[in-house]
Amino acid sequence: MRVIGVIRKSRRERVSREEFEELLRSAGYEVLAIVEQVREEHPRYNIGPGKLEEIKKLIEELKPDKVVFANRLTPSQAYNLWKELRIDIIDKWQLVLEIFEKRAHSKEAKLQVELANLQYELPLVKEAIRRIKMGDRAGFKGMGEYQVHQYFKHIRYRMGKIREELEKIRAEREIRRKKREEEGFVLVALAGYTNAGKSTLLNALTGESIEARNQMFTTLDTTTRRFKVNGKMLLITDTVGFIDNLPPFIVEAFHSTLEEIVKADIIVLVLDASEPWPEIRRKFFASLDVLRELKALDRPMIVALNKIDLISEEDAKEKALLLRELVNGRANLIDVVKISAKQKRLEELYSAIEKAIAISPKFQEFEITVRDPEKVGKVIAMIHSVGELLDIDYGEGARIRAYIQTGMIRHLTKLGVEVKRVA
Q: Digits of tens for pLDDT over the chain (423 positions)?
């Protein structure tokens, strides 16, 4: 499908042409032209009337299938533009939702995308009803007055049903999460801007082969896997990527997925180090905005500058230094680390996770006294499965020092061994 893209920005706004074009390509569109304008928002058309005439001429000349705006359009602006241009008009968030529809595989992801689509359509239908009452017979999607009213009722009903289904899925996830909590697992959430390399990083840490492509919004389904850091077992979850000015209706629709970030013990915020500094800065603040909205900025955070294999060592060091200055006071920062998920250069990340574990109440040093010699092997195996064995003194049984998850204590006490926290 062939499209013309439109970007309007004021001098204060952050709008990336490269990102917009990448979104269009990710949705499968052929970009015929990009029209740009620097001005304040026009209340009727978003762009100015002069630029509107320019687009009319381009439509006559290039014969696109639709026009895509990089800005959020109000329902009245979308209608006014359609009336003038007589062609399908969508904005950035409809474009993002089209990509989401292509990427959604699980039942939960499909429900979340459908809910976001319905939330987006609701104000458009309200605008159609308002115009019908004013005597404007344009309708909505070619519908008449009765059909529009019925469609409005259908949207409200369907949104209610989807929320009920998502709540059931959320309750099931909460049961699994509580079980992990009881086991004492430290939960690590991968967060960050879309296409920063989160899925590649999860694969590098866990040895999995989750789909990871160089395109936007590859991951819509949460994936949780186990991995070890210096003998300590942790759980890591990949989450949906962020994007600049993520609207509330998408955050609300994907709340059960993004909740994995809120519940995490450690957040690893992944950024693409190969991009120019202004882009890294913009995407860092966009990610921070989402984390703030989720009320997750109090969580211990590691900022991971990924893809350092694509830049020089000096460039990576300079960007890490700039990020440390940028993060200062804005989040509960553990460290800024330089990594390459593709090449599995993760030493700095492992070290930072160790620092975060050291302040986590879930991993503590314990002294374990095993009086029954026959149980020593089983206790050591349990420690190796989730923690780190520090020292062992054999006698009649064994006296063991180890870092273990607090949830393991009840399993050890069931074996009849003594467990004592080391001060």
A: 899 999 998 877 667 888 889 889 888 899 999 999 999 999 999 999 999 999 999 999 999 999 999 988 888 898 889 889 989 898 888 888 888 888 777 888 888 888 888 988 888 888 777 776 666 655 555 556 667 778 888 889 999 999 999 888 888 877 887 777 766 788 899 998 888 889 899 999 998 776 656 666 666 667 888 898 887 888 998 888 888 877 777 777 777 677 788 888 899 999 999 999 999 999 999 899 889 888 889 889 999 999 999 999 999 999 999 999 998 888 889 999 999 999 999 999 999 999 998 888 878 889 999 988 888 888 888 888 778 889 998 877 789 998 888 878 888 888 888 888 887
Residue 193, annotated as binding a ligand: yes
Q: Is 366 annotated as a binding residue?
A: no
Instruction: Tell me which of 116, 134, 164 is where a domain ends.
Output: 164
* 178 belongs to an annotated ligand binding site: no
Is 306 labelled as part of a ligand binding site? yes
Q: Say whether 192 counts as a known binding-site residue.
A: yes
- Residue 240 assigned to a binding site: yes
- Binding site annotation covers 340? yes
In 316-326, which positions are buried (b, 16+ CB within 10 angstroms) versus exposed (e)? Answer: beebbeebeeb
Cα 94 to chain centroid distance, Å, stands at: 18
- 219 carries a ligand binding annotation: yes
- 128 annotated binding-site participant: no
Q: Residue type at 236?
A: I
User: pTM for this one?
Assistant: 0.78
199 is in an annotated binding site: yes
295 is in an annotated binding site: no
Residues 63, 19 share a domain: yes
CATH of the domain at 385: 3.30.70.240
Run of H or E residues at 395: strand 388-395
Q: Which residues pair with 345 in a beta bridge?
A: 340
Q: Is residue 210 part of a domain?
A: yes
What residues make up the domain containing 151?
104-164
Say if residue 307 carries a ligand binding annotation: yes
- In this structure, the answer to whether residues 23 and 66 fall within a common structural domain is yes
* 392 and 268 together in one domain: no
Same domain for 96 and 118, yes or no, is no
Q: Is 380 flagged in the annotation as binding?
A: no
Query: Does the annotation flag 133 for ligand binding?
Result: no
- Give yes or no: residues 227 and 344 share one domain: yes
Distance CA 202, CA 190 (A): 8
| Residue 195 annotated in ligand binding | yes
281 occurs within a structural domain: yes
Whether 194 has a binding-site annotation, put simply, is yes
If 0-12 CB within 10 Å is exposed, 13-18 middle and 19+ buried, where does residue 329 land? exposed
Task: State the Cα–Cα distance between residues 26 and 309, nearest whole angstrom.
Answer: 24
The reply to whether 257 sits in an annotated binding site is no
